[in-house]
Specification:
The N and C termini lie close together (6 Å). Helix content is 41%, strand content 13%. With 217 residues, it is α/β, with parallel strands linked by helices. Helix 3 crosses helix 4. The relative contact order is 0.18.
Length: 217
């Protein structure tokens, strides 16, 4: 029986591709680099803001102080968090339903503050008992520390915990933590074949399918 569902954020609960791409390209433009295609930037997302900035600077051929570039990126992104970012279709309904039956939490490599602002702005934050970001003391996914912390905080054993995410980073995290794993194939972090990997218990092509998944598990 699943008692705790932990969601990834970008590519699972929310479609944030355009705002991330726009913020990244604004940073690159300020540093004198060429604009990167939106799909190229999207493929860089998933390992935290620092890795996104590092990959974008490399792709644009820019040699600059990475820490200062990261700080500037976070400033830029902070001003456009909700310009185009929306929940995936069905997310609002499904988290409302699921929250009546089990604990819900968020585990993301995005920093905590913008994660909370996005969830609050989209009217979703009330459904989650805890939000753990990539700047937490538990490390970034695939480090299992954040997921193990969420299980302990909820008083739920790992076998009764389901991680829902769209990327290989999420699959690795669930495997290392010893939880169940559901791959969201609709997310922008999904790559072909990920759903066939070891440690994947279920796959979904839309958020609404989670009700059936929880029933099966």
């Amino acid at each position: 029986m699943i008692r705790l569902i932990v969601f990834d954020l970008d590519g699972t609960l929310i479609d944030s591709r355009q705002d991330l791409a726009d913020a990244t390209n604004e940073l690159i433009a300020e540093l004198g680099g060429p604009r990167l295609p939106d799909d190229t930037v999207t493929a860089m997302v998933g390992d935290g803001a620092r890795m996104l900035v590092r990959r974008a600077l490399t792709a644009a051929g820019i040699n600059t102080d990475e820490t200062r570039a990261l700080e500037r990126f976070l400033e830029i992104y902070s001003e456009r968090l909700l310009n185009f970012t929306v929940p995936y279709r069905g997310v609002a309904d499904i988290v409302a339903q699921l929250s009546r039956h089990c604990r819900l939490a968020v585990l993301t490599n995005k920093p905590s503050e913008p994660s909370r602002r996005i969830l609050s702005g989209l009217g979703l934050i009330e459904y989650f008992s805890e939000i753990v970001g990539g700047d937490s003391p538990f490390g970034r996914k695939p480090d299992p520390g954040g997921l193990v912390h969420l299980c302990g905080g909820a008083g739920v054993d790992r076998a009764s915990t389901l991680l829902v995410g769209d990327s290989s980073v999420d699959v690795q995290t669930a495997s290392r933590a010893g939880t169940r794993m559901c791959v969201a194939r609709y997310g922008f972090g999904y790559r072909e074949g990920l759903d066939k990997g070891d440690g994947v218990d279920r796959v979904i092509d839309s958020p609404s399918e989670l009700i059936e998944v929880i029933g099966d598990l």
